[in-house]
Every structure is written in C-alpha cells, then in structure tokens.
Design goal:
This protein is mainly alpha-helical and 173 residues long. The chain has five helices and two strands; from the N terminus they run ααββααα. It has a two-stranded antiparallel sheet with strand order 1-2.
Length: 173
C-alpha cells in the first residue's frame, strides 16, 4: 500500500463551498449547544424527580383532608390534574391471540385487518458532529507514519543483520 493511499484512507472529504462550510459550522455549534442543554436538562430532571418524590405524596395527602395546595413564601404548589388509572388495549397482540384460535377464513380477515391498519414510519438518520483540531488530525497521521516507519526500520535492521551474517560466512569460507 502506498503512503498516499494510507493518507487518503484516513482523511475526510474537505468542503470547498464557503456557504456550505458556514452552514456546517453553524450546525456544529447548534449541535454542541443542544448536547450541553440536554445534559443540563438531564441533571435538572433527575433533581426534579427526586424532589417530586417528596412533594407529591404530601399533595396527595392534602387532597384527602380537602386542602388544595402547599404554600411557601410566594410559591403555591398544587396538583394540576388528579392522577387516575387508565386501561388501554393492545389491539395487535389481541388480534394475534385471536388468530391462533379461529378457523382459516377468519384468520384471513384478521390478517387483512392487520395489514390494512399497518402504517409505515420513516426514522430519520442521525448526524454526528465532532469538532476536530488540526493537532488531533496531525497526531493521528503521525501515529500511522511512525508505525509504518517502525515496520520498515525493523525490516531494514533484520535485512542488515542477515547481510552481515552472510558476509561473515562468505569471508570464513
């Protein structure tokens, strides 16, 4: 493998269009901001759930005593909507269960109904953004070249040793 092939295999396509490059930079900045916001949101949600675990039972207990809210200074905490249990049906699982227990003609109707209610969904690809520093790309390239140089150096040293051993044998003959 030539050195240019090695170099080309570890590089990415450079964007020449300045407008596209600006859009990619803006996209990368927005992506970084979103990642930071998501991390912050995750921390806040964790703390929120922890505090909610303390406050919710108190609010539910208040409702039993006909009180409506908890008040601290200028903060009023209430339950917006009372919790309830809801029953929902898993229709596909129910139809699959029925399919095993009916005759072939009815099974065809069930299959047709499942097929008629099938909805395709498109899952968009995800784009990853990473900021590269020139030093990282250079260091990676240097690492590959150093490994290649070590291989050639080892081969060269081994070849030199073999030639020296051969010369010594020839001189002794």
């Amino acid at each position: 493998m030539r050195l240019t092939e090695i170099y080309n295999s570890i590089t990415e396509k450079k964007v020449e269009d300045p407008e596209l490059a600006a859009q990619i930079k803006e996209y990368a900045e927005i992506s970084d901001s979103l990642d930071r916001a998501k991390a912050e949101l995750k921390k806040l949600e964790s703390k929120y759930k922890e505090l909610e675990g303390v406050i919710r039972p108190l609010l539910e207990e208040l409702q039993e005593t006909q009180d409506k809210a908890l008040e601290v200074e200028d903060i009023l905490v209430t339950i917006k909507r009372k919790g309830y249990e809801r029953t929902s049906y898993a229709y596909k699982e129910a139809l699959d269960w029925v399919k095993d227990r009916i005759n072939p003609a009815m099974r065809k109707i069930v299959d047709d109904s499942l097929e008629a209610t099938k909805k395709p969904a498109y899952i968009a690809s995800q784009i990853g953004v990473q900021k590269l520093k020139e030093e990282k790309a250079d260091s990676k390239l240097k690492m590959y070249f150093n490994k290649l140089a070590q291989v050639f150096s080892f081969r060269n040293n081994k070849l030199s040793q073999d030639i020296d051993a051969l010369k010594t044998k020839l001189q002794s003959v």
